[in-house]
Amino acid sequence: MLAPLSWLKEYVDIDVTAKELEEKLFSCGFEVEELIDIGKDVSKVVVGLVEECEPIPETHLHVCQVNAGEHGKFQVCCGADNVKAGGKFPLALEGASVYATAKDHVTIEGTMTIKKGKLRGFESCGMLCSGVELGLTEDMYPGAGYCGLLVLPEDAEVGSDIKPLVGLDDYIFDIAITANRPDCQSIYGIAREVAAVLNKPCKPLNVDYTETEVKKEAFKVTVDAPELCPRYIGHYVYDVKMDQSPAWMKRRLALVGIGSISNIVDITNYVLKELGQPMHAFDYSFLEGEQINVRRAGNGEKIVTLDEKEFELNDSNLVICDGKKPVALAGIMGGLNSEILDTTTEVMFEAAKFMRDNIRKSSRSLGQASDSSAMYAKGVYEYTTVLAMKRALHLIEELGCGKVSSTHVEVSSGNSIEPKEMKVSINRVNGVLGIKVPDQDILRIMTALNFEPVINGDELTIQIPAYREDMENYPDVAEEVIRMYGYDHVTPTFMPTAEVTMGGLNLRQKTELKLKRALCAAGAFEGIHYSFFSPKDFDLLRLPEDDYRRTAISLINPINIDLSLMRTTLAPQMIHAMARNQKKGTLSGRIFELGNVFIPKSLPLTDYPDERQTLCVGVFGQEESFYTLKAFAEVVAKTLGIEFTYEQSSNTFLHPYRTADIICDGEKVGYLGQVTYEIMDDLDMRTPAFVMEIDIAKLSKYYGKEQMFTPLPKFDIEKRDFAFVVNKDITCAQIENGIKEACKYVTHVELFDVYEGIQLGPQKRSMAFSVIFTPKDEAFDAERVDGFVKKILKNLEKNLGITLRA
Question: One fold for both 2-38+171-198 and 507-702?
Fold first, then answer.
């Protein structure tokens, strides 16, 4: 939001510097992102009077004697065609800073410092300047657009600084307006805040005008979509005289980035910036049927806007129509078929309140944006709609560019634009702030903000202006009071449930960090994905219709359909991440994410969903396998000081023979397996991919588990390798458990080879394990270890039918 200081002074007697005002605005909740000094690059330029001007033979140059008042008299060589004796022009003294221009004398190419020099043998001590060399445009100062010297008024004081004379002593505040204060998206809205923070009155706008007896009896307005247009105002102006706007209006529009077009169009832009109300002017002669109809567009209906772009519309777009055709894209841009021309003699002014969400969505879907659509998207109030029409009609009279008829048509849904009363408890207001603000200060502040306060005991009664729809309850009153009273009055205190700590991380944070470091040490990289996913991901994973993961929370206003659901599993995003890496040429990798899934208790939501912290690990590449992923599961178990077991299982998106559930103390806490070939084909994946998901929330009870120190064995360990012939339906976990059950001295079992062959039979395979025996009180001899081996073989054969491979 750009707000020139000179424009703000039109409404408020500002007696502080621009820098001081910036600080005061910040103190009351308005961050000034940038304070722009218009004349910061121009210095040591004064009003010069050319007393003598003689041409230099055979050149276009003149040698001039220039009077600079108290600065002295200087000889200056000048090549401008409008230099003459008796004229007053900007004089850049030696050492002055001005803008450097290209050969076209229009394009600015940085700044330059003026130095003494010679031209055609004549000494030149300074430079007479054009408007462009001072950073001015025709809209900012009359005559600045001429390709020659800037002609100054005859009454300009010789030798005085040029900046105040041409408006280069002005500042522009670039203010960040929060979403809850659209009433401040205008010059007058900021002026109200400036008046309040300076404790000064804000001058009321001139909105008076005189209607003539001329009336368009046949003209009518209908609104067929009141849910999208709760208020529409049209007013007929005739005897229009198209001309240029006055210099003061051109300058103000230029300072906020709008170029002057014509008096009628400039009035609509001026009101837009002054009050934050978009307006439009239709050439009445182009309105067929003498009517305006506000309706939804028909599917396939087309319109060509003022920038000569054609759009195909649908019924979600709102259009302004005459008796036969669309003449404007509501809230976005007028139609080319009703634009204001130099020949326009009668105008229909429009001011309307369009619903912000509809304008925002239409603007985005059509790819068509404007100052008006941006303003509507932030919010426009019906109070401002009415005020803006009055202001525009006043300006018509002030500029003398038309006559205001008595044809005024207003259609509304009945919303009041009068102040509404609110009663709040002063004690509750002070309770929010944690301090007691004196009643007289509350009265002063609320009066300055136009709330017309009355205090009766503990009750504060205020009248909320119609442009302050953000005021709903006592916390809002507390906010208004403290931002004007001063946040420096707030005394730092602890919340009732707060406690003093030594700082640092809590147990959950420490454990999470420990897990991440362990996974990184194992060769994985951390990834972070959005908390949203696509409905298509359910079908990608082949989830059954009754799977709980399909019960996902839908977003009301998603960025797009692929980010429209709160995720119930991390698997699809991890699979997509592995696929994206492969498409970009990274054919192997290891990724993990520690994030939340969101499981609703019921839909539609009646309570907060269950946010469960979940770990997902994805590995992909020709060298990776199911056992790579299992090793990551063991890293998690080791980090938490627990043990996992694994049971064969099935999952719709994992290979039927390469997937397992992860079990901890008899409870399923996750799964792991290889992504099916069908999904790999769907995503054009070229190397095998594996995914694991662990419900970390179920493991949180093990956080902080004490790690028991096991001393190194006093005696040498014994290691034996076994190659077993087993049925294919027997899992590695069953064998490991059988080995450990048979001998208490077994401390480690590791599978190191799997073999399948014709000689073993179709239902058999060979699995080779390394087993380590660790002595406790005495060394093992060969005979004792052989005894352990016999017990293991006997237990496996008895319970699992496993034999030693010959």
Answer: no
pTM check: above 0.70? no
Report the alpha-carbon distance of residue 387 to residue 277 in Å, rounded. Answer: 9
Q: Which CATH number, 3.30.56.10, 1.20.1740.10, 3.10.180.10, 3.40.50.620, labels domain 420-486?
A: 3.30.56.10
Q: Which of 333, 344, 194 minimizes the C-alpha distance to 272? A: 333
Identify the architecture of domain 507-702 in CATH.
2-Layer Sandwich (3.30)
167: left (phi over 0), alpha (psi -120 to 50) or beta: left
Q: Which two tokens stand for residue 253?
A: 């529009």
Fold of 220-412: Phenylalanyl-tRNA Synthetase; Chain B, domain 3 (3.50.40)
Task: List Cβ neighbours of 774 (8 Å cut-off, separation of 6 or more).
Answer: 713, 717, 745, 747
Write the Ramachandran bin of 100: left for phi over 0, alpha for psi from -120 to 50, otherwise beta: beta
Topology (CATH) of 2-38+171-198:
Phenylalanyl-tRNA Synthetase; Chain B, domain 1 (3.30.56)
Cα end-to-end distance, the chain, whole Å:
85
Q: Are 239 and 345 in contact (CB under 8 A)?
A: yes
User: What is 718-804's CATH topology?
Assistant: Alpha-Beta Plaits (3.30.70)
Exposed, middle or buried, 570 (CB in 10 Å: 0-12/13-18/19+)?
buried
Tokens of 73: 């008299």
Nearest in space to 169 (alpha carbons), one of 45, 51, 329:
45
The predicted-structure confidence for 378-435, as pLDDT tens digits, reads as follows 999 999 999 999 999 999 999 999 999 999 999 999 999 999 999 999 999 999 999 9
Q: In CATH, what number does 43-166 get?
A: 2.40.50.140
pLDDT digits (tens, 9 = 90+) for 320-379: 999 999 999 999 999 999 999 999 999 999 999 999 999 999 999 999 999 999 999 999
- In order of 60, 231, 358, 733, 770, the CA distances from 468 in angstroms are 62, 17, 21, 68, 76
The position carrying tokens 């003494």 is: 116
* Tokens representing residue 569 in the block: 């599993």
CB 526 within 8 A of CB 593: yes
- pLDDT tens digits, residue range 598-619? 999 999 888 999 999 999 999 9
For residue 640, which of 693, 595, 703, 695 has the smallest C-alpha distance?
703
